[in-house]
Amino acid sequence: MATTPPPPAEILGTLGDFTSRENWDKFFALRGTGDSFEWYAEWPNLRSPLLALLGDGGAAGAADAGAGAAAPEILVPACGSSALSERLYDTGFRRITNVDFSRVVVADMLRRHARTRPEMRWRVMDMTEMQFADGSFDVILDKGGLDALMEPGAGTKLGTKYLNEAKRVLKSGGKFVCLTLAESHVLGLLLSEFRFGWDMSIQAIASESSKKSAFQTFMVVMVKGKMGVVQTIKSSLDQSAEYCNMKQANAVIRALGNETIIRESYSSGVDVLLSLRDLQLGAIGDLKVIVPGRRRQFILGEPETSLYCYKAVLLDAKKQTETFVYHCGVFIVPKARAQEWLFASEEGQWHVVESAKAARLVMVFLDSRHANIGMDIIKKDLSPLIKDLEPGNPEEEAPIPFMMAGDGVKQRDVLEELTSEITGPMVVEDVVYENADGDQGSLPEKMFRRLIFGRSSGLVQSEALLIRDPHSDETDKKNKNASATSKKRRNQKKGSKNSLRIDHSFLGSSYHSSIISGLSLVASALSAASASGEKVSTTVIGLGAGCFPMFLRGCLPFVEIEVVELDPLVAELAKKYFGFSADEQLKVHLGDGIKFVEDSVAANHSASNGSASNSIKILVIDVDSSDLSSGLSCPPKNFVEDLFLQKAKELLSEGGLFIINLVSRSSSVREMVVSRLKAIFEHLYSLQLEEDINEVLFASPSERYLDINNLDAAVAKLKDLLKFPVDVELDIKKLQRLQ
């Protein structure tokens, strides 16, 4: 079939954005059906190099698929209306799968080829998110697809995403064939993304002498090999040869020369300082696999992906045992200690790995660039970077722990250590962090009180800010004026400690702030309740140290809070050390949270005789899990099963918010939870926290109380109601609608 001439300017004008599905649909619709279109490199020029590359597998398969040699599985992404696939098919390569995200062109190609080429497959699919299993294809044949994704100025995000998918679906030993104009930004991405573990070759595609094309087409071939191995690029390009665009060809030759220098440095045995991206691409082998004794220095972070860059060392424990506490951990070394033998020497670093009891430890070194930066900001910046270094698919879905030389705590006072039959080991302590600012209630430095659950790898479960109690000032003055006996001095010291109290206007957990900000979704209903004097029924499952319900009571005085806590000992600690107190507005129920919700639903049905409630209700699930085998750190799996979700919906009746603090490192578990919520609730929103894997989900059975049409106005209403400061605008920018 002869190809038609290029479409007129008005048709090409539809492609203002080459990455837009809608633009391509318009383009193919305007061109009409029944013919093919090539942007560059037509079959007569491609036939010889492609058949030389693909070999006789197609012919063998066409002659007799069962006679021995299997025909290669070929994927053609972004196939468009090119005749390339049909030419290959007619040559004998029958196992060809074509994908394009334009339904218009796929429908047209199916009509054209269904009868004449019945074995060829066509799929509507985005090539950056392909629905094929790993290792599905022997050959991926890209003709202009990568070029289209990487318009100048568009960045590399889509191109990188596509190449990651291409690597995934390609078999070991398979070939990724890219027909490209090799513009500098495209070639640069190909050279870096296929630097480690791939055999790469490049050649120019000859042009017919009668056709003076403005651009030279190149065929870049990458063969999937062993990770970590750096191969020299095989190039048939020659500066003395004639190309249809010499400027373009010379630019490619120069880029290959620069890449050769880079590759030689990697393969020379010198300990080159790698980047995180180098590690992700396989520079030191498969990161998902623990390699005992592996150690490599690298740079963590870059301007496009993080606030700061860090010197780091990846260490896989020399002896892999079953006694590791963590499958992956982070150890932060402050600048003041970076030169100590324990951290600066290789031998010392292995001692740290052993004491940290981590199968893989990433040591991160702080320097002058990180001076005066709070540790919370550092951890927030590091968290998404460290996730890419986490090995395998861990059985326990727990947050990656951050450790530190001195753990960042300058001063620690353990108030109580105890063990509960329900929760396990717990610690209550007062701490002063390094780089903590003072001036909080006349204290020289900020002091925090922490509740730590041992079952969660010693991570801080609750944190409260301590401030000076103004009511204790008179007592302190009297003590200071008393006679200076040793006994009275001891009493004065004790009284000084007792003069501190919890600041219940402070939220130590960012996900608690996100829960408050998410109330913007029902701000109008809250405002109406406040104005009318109506109480808003709010149930919180999980007390912890009681910081969140205490903040909620003071911040929104019109809410009526019922907290359910399973462990009586946790409730005692909240009262004893964190200033928690119950009253008519804030009540505590000791018992099972699921049963409490079920009983509340039954009570509501009895009281209303089945009629719908006219008041808004809020239900918050803020419970961590003692069983991490389900893939959930928060909440326990029973709280996301259909039976409980249905009860939660019934509790809210006609409206309100069901709020879950979700923590899971497994994307499949997260998707399962989201899918269940979508099936039961009509509306679903997500607020993803950047610093870690916490995600707050907001579900509602109807839009009755939702302010979904004007969130800016809703944010303003909520801020007018709040008695304590919360950065609602910053949080709400991250709110995403899932349904």
From TrEMBL:
InterPro entries: Lys/N-term_MeTrsfase_sf, Methyltransf_11, SAM-dependent_MTases_sf. Keywords: Methyltransferase, Multifunctional enzyme, Transferase. Residues 78-178 form the Methyltransferase type domain. GO terms for molecular function: S-adenosylmethionine-dependent methyltransferase activity. The keyword Transferase applies. It comes from the Eukaryota. Pfam families: Methyltransf_11 (PF08241), Spermine_synth (PF01564). This is Methyltransferase-like protein 13. The lineage of its organism: Eukaryota, Viridiplantae, Streptophyta, Embryophyta, Tracheophyta.
